[in-house]
Amino acid sequence: MFALRPFPDVPTHRYKIYGLSIVSDLRLPELPEDEGDGEADVRISGAVVAGSEEGISFGPDGAVLHIKGIASYLIRDGRGILVDPAPDAVDRNVRLYLLGSAFGILLHQRGLLPLHANAIEIDGHAVAFMGETGAGKSTLAAWLHDAGHRVIADDVCVLDFGEGGQDRIRVRPGMPRIRLWKDALERSGRVSADYEFSYAGDESYEKFDVPVSPERSTETDLDLVAIYVLSTGESFDISRLSGVDAADAVFSNTYRGFVLSELGQSRLHFDAALKVVRSTPIFRLERSRRLEDIAGDVSRVIAHARSLVEPAC
Fold first, then answer.
1. Which of 118, 122, 197, 265 is in Cβ range 3.0-4.6 Å of 137 for a Cys bridge?
2. Is 113-312 in CATH node 3.40.50.300?
3. In sequence order, which residues have a C-beta less than 8 Å from that of residue 54 and are 6 or more positions away?
4. How many alpha carbons fall within 13 Å on the CB side of residue 115?
């Protein structure tokens, strides 16, 4: 059950992300603004969402995500998210879950494929880095950014199979930021005091949001030329995955993929994963993750990706 209500004293804002236009009653400073005035793809509104329990539940009105002490979110039909902040919740934390898990469910409702991955532009093409939380995706992306490569997406990488079918997969622009742990941030030459905590109110969770300027990010879709699955090893190594191993990498690194069966989209997800495997080389990228090794690792990754981009061109 829910009842619509506007957020108090907040004008409507327009944003864009993942190729979608958004109209929101809630200010979302993390997102690029949209100057368009047509009908939006997604509407974000204030609401009273009743009957919420911790976690995710599904019902006739849509999917409800409840985060204790933060907010309840009702995600409907891939077109709307109703937000019910908890009393005294910090706005930054409300947006954290709204633009994370809640939006991930909405992307699945729209039939898109979001991967738990970062994406970087190398020579005009998209290269994605998949892996579990803490695998080093954002750390690698930050060093590639500092080496002169534009950021396409951070943490959630949305694939588009629209034009060209299974032979051409494109990455839609995502979050123009990089989220870094304190040690990785400071190793990159940044000062943690200059950035906001990703989660407000718990300074023991030492992760920070590093905004990416418009000229160092992209607002256009780019062809996906390779996916790297990050793993930890004693030395640097890149090996090609194929068949079941490649497909399993896509399945296991689908962002919030556990909701697909409840949404009735398991078959759609299976078909999308097969398209990725058939059209895009997938590699296991093994590295020590010692921060003192990362400069050399980045150079090797760039060289390997460029060897794939040239034939693609």
1. 118
2. yes
3. 66, 67, 68
4. 32
Residue pair 190/241 in contact by the 8 Å Cβ criterion: no
Q: Report whether 31 contacts 13 (CB < 8 A).
A: no
- Written as six digits, the tokens of 178 are 């990089």
pLDDT digits (tens, 9 = 90+) for 69-119: 999 999 999 999 999 999 999 999 999 999 999 999 999 999 999 999 999
Which parts of the chain fold into alpha helices (H)? 91-97, 103-109, 137-146, 182-187, 243-252, 260-263, 266-279, 294-312
Give yes or no for a contact between 289 and 232, defined as CB atoms under 8 angstroms apart. Answer: yes
pLDDT digits (tens, 9 = 90+) for 142-201: 999 999 999 999 999 999 987 544 467 999 999 999 999 999 999 889 999 999 999 998
Please calculate the CA angle 226-309-32 and round it to the nearest 5 degrees.
65
Q: Where are the domains of the chain?
A: 2-109, 113-312
Distance CA 10, CA 311 (A): 50
> CA 206: distance to chain centroid?
20
CB count, 10 Å around CB of 236? 14
- Asked whether the beta carbons of 257 and 251 are under 8 A apart, the reply is yes
Strand order of the β-sheet with 207-211 is 177-181, 207-211, 196-197
Extract the tokens encoding 180. Answer: 């870094």
